[in-house]
């Protein structure tokens, strides 16, 4: 039992070490009113692993910081699509 517990703790610590904070900019061209960014931000914040979202209506973009061990860009773009605002990863913005 002790070995199993030790192995579980080690696995959790190792998984945390592999996690990395990533930042990506999404193009969200369908935002056509000043209230749209609120919906986009709420949708992205509901994705597990997202730690920060900044939405810019004028540039039709969302900058998202997330834990790549918990989510990915596919989940982020799906979240905006499901909220009615399809998005795509802007080239060269994934850090």
Task: Give the helix/strand layout.
Blueprint lengths: L1 H17 L2 E7 L8 H10 L4 E7 L4 E7 L5 H10 L5 E2 L6
Antiparallel strand pairs: 1-3, 1-4, 2-3
Sheet bearing the most strands, described? 4 strands, antiparallel
Mean pLDDT: 88
The SSE string, one letter per element, is HEHEEHE
What count of helical segments does DSSP give?
A: 3
Domain count, please report it.
Answer: 1
* CATH domain topology: Alpha-Beta Plaits
Poorly predicted ranges (pLDDT <50, ≥5 residues)?
A: none
Name the structural class: alpha+beta
The CATH class turns out to be Alpha Beta
Strand content: 15-25%
Question: Under the CATH scheme, which architecture would be assigned?
Answer: 2-Layer Sandwich
Beta strands, count: 4
Q: Report how far the terminal alpha carbons are from each other.
A: 41 Å
| Biggest β-sheet: strands ordered side by side in the sheet | 2-3-1-4
Characterize the overall form. elongated
Describe this structure in words.
This protein is α+β, with helices and mostly antiparallel strands and 95 residues long. It has a single domain, classed as Alpha-Beta Plaits (2-Layer Sandwich), CATH 3.30.70.100. It is 39% helix and 24% strand. It is built from three helices and four strands, in the order αβαββαβ. It has helices at 2-18, 36-45, 73-82; strands at residues 21-27, 50-56, 61-67, 88-89. The chain has a four-stranded antiparallel β-sheet with strand order 2-3-1-4. The longest helix has 17 residues, at 2-18. The protein is elongated and about 60 Å long.
Please give a quick description of this structure.
It contains three helices and four strands. With 95 residues, it is α+β, with helices and mostly antiparallel strands. A hairpin with a 4-residue loop joins strand 2 and strand 3.
């Amino acid at each position: 039992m002790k070995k199993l517990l030790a192995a579980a703790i080690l696995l959790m610590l190792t998984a945390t070490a592999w996690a990395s904070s990533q930042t990506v900019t999404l193009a969200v061209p369908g935002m056509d009113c000043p209230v749209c960014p609120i919906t986009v931000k709420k949708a992205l914040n509901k994705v597990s692993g997202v730690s920060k979202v900044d939405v810019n209506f004028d540039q039709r973009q969302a900058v998202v910081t997330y834990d790549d061990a918990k989510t990915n860009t596919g989940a982020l773009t799906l979240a905006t699509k499901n909220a009615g605002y399809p998005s795509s990863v802007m080239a060269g913005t994934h850090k």
